[in-house]
């Protein structure tokens, strides 16, 4: 379950109204011992104390902190329609991605507005709970390639003409920060590609044209494993 806050000198945990509703749907009983996450590396054990429309509370029994490995796996992906974008976000969480940059490309079929991010965060929390990912990724919208801070990362552009992704396994394993850039359904625009080629290494996932979500899943799985996630 998702923990909103811990208070009362670390003795009580608070859960949101939607988590309280989730507890009801799952028929969890007062007094049950549960596991909670907060997306900041903490794993809580708590005993459920109250459930109401305004939220739920529990008595904190223990807290364990899982340290982050200090590496960063970033997925830069062109925006796309729901439910495709939902799948991308969910799988990125499962694969241990630290940051999802959603790019409103010229050729994106659906532009994402900042007011959609709440919905995306809720997908990320659900995915984190399911796979016990203790760190919630960062999520941001990028409107121009110039906004990417690419200076300290190995930037891999998924491109049919590139060298095979697996040929970069050693570079990925030894890099602290890895960014994978995936184009939109219609491909990147000419001027976008020109800018991307200035700081990215083109890499290929084979000769077949993969859907955006497949390209994200394949490349993030590979990088995540190489980075020891
Ligand atoms: N017609 C588009 C084009 O020619 O670029 C197809 C775009 S594809 C559906 C979406 C994105 O997934 C591409 O821009 C690319 O970044 C990535 N992608 C898909 N298949 C790939 C492959 N076999 N190798 C490398 N990247 C791939």
Automatic annotation (TrEMBL):
Domain of life of the native organism: Bacteria
Catalytic reaction(s) noted: uridine(1498) in 16S rRNA + S-adenosyl-L-methionine = N(3)-methyluridine(1498) in 16S rRNA + S-adenosyl-L-homocysteine + H(+)
Record carries keyword Transferase: yes
Gene Ontology annotations of biological process type: rRNA base methylation
Keywords: Cytoplasm, Methyltransferase, rRNA processing, S-adenosyl-L-methionine, Transferase
Gene3D superfamilies: 3.40.1280.10, Hypothetical PUA domain-like, domain 1 (2.40.240.20)
GO molecular function: rRNA (uridine-N3-)-methyltransferase activity
Segments traversing the membrane: none
Protein localization: Cytoplasm
GO cellular component entries: cytoplasm
Ribosomal RNA small subunit methyltransferase E PUA-like domain residues: 18-58
EC numbers: 2.1.1.193
Statement: the UniProt record of this protein carries the keyword Plastid: no
InterPro entries: Alpha/beta_knot_MTases, PUA-like_sf, RsmE, RsmE_MTase_dom, RsmE_PUA-like, tRNA_m1G_MTases_N
The Ribosomal RNA small subunit methyltransferase E methyltransferase domain, residue ranges: 72-222
A Pfam entry, by short name: Methyltrans_RNA
Major site of localization recorded for this protein: cytoplasm
NCBIfam families xref list: RsmE family RNA methyltransferase
Family per record: Belongs to the RNA methyltransferase RsmE family.
Role according to the record: Specifically methylates the N3 position of the uracil ring of uridine 1498 (m3U1498) in 16S rRNA. Acts on the fully assembled 30S ribosomal subunit.
Full protein name: Ribosomal RNA small subunit methyltransferase E
Organism: Kosmotoga pacifica
């Amino acid at each position: 379950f998702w923990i909103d806050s811990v208070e009362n000198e670390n003795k009580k945990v608070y859960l949101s109204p939607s988590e309280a509703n989730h507890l009801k749907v799952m028929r969890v009983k007062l007094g049950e011992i549960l596991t909670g996450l907060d997306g900041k590396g903490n794993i809580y054990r708590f005993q459920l104390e109250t459930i109401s429309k305004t939220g739920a509370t529990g008595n904190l029994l223990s807290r364990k902190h899982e340290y982050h490995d200090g590496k960063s796996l970033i997925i830069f992906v062109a925006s796309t329609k729901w439910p495709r974008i939902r799948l991308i976000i969910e799988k990125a969480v499962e694969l241990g991605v630290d940051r999802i940059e959603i790019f409103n490309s010229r050729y994106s079929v659906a532009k994402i507005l900042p007011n959609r991010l709440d919905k995306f965060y809720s997908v990320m929390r659900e995915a984190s709970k399911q796979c016990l990912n203790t760190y919630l990724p960062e999520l941001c919208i990028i409107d121009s390639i110039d906004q990417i801070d690419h200076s300290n990362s190995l930037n891999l552009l998924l491109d049919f003409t590139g060298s095979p992704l697996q040929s970069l396994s050693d570079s990925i394993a030894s890099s602290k920060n890895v960014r994978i850039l995936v184009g939109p359904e219609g491909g990147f625009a000419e001027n976008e590609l020109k800018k991307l080629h200035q700081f990215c290494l083109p890499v290929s996932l084979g000769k077949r044209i993969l859907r955006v979500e497949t390209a994200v899943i394949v490349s993030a799985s590979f990088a995540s494993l190489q980075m020891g996630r």
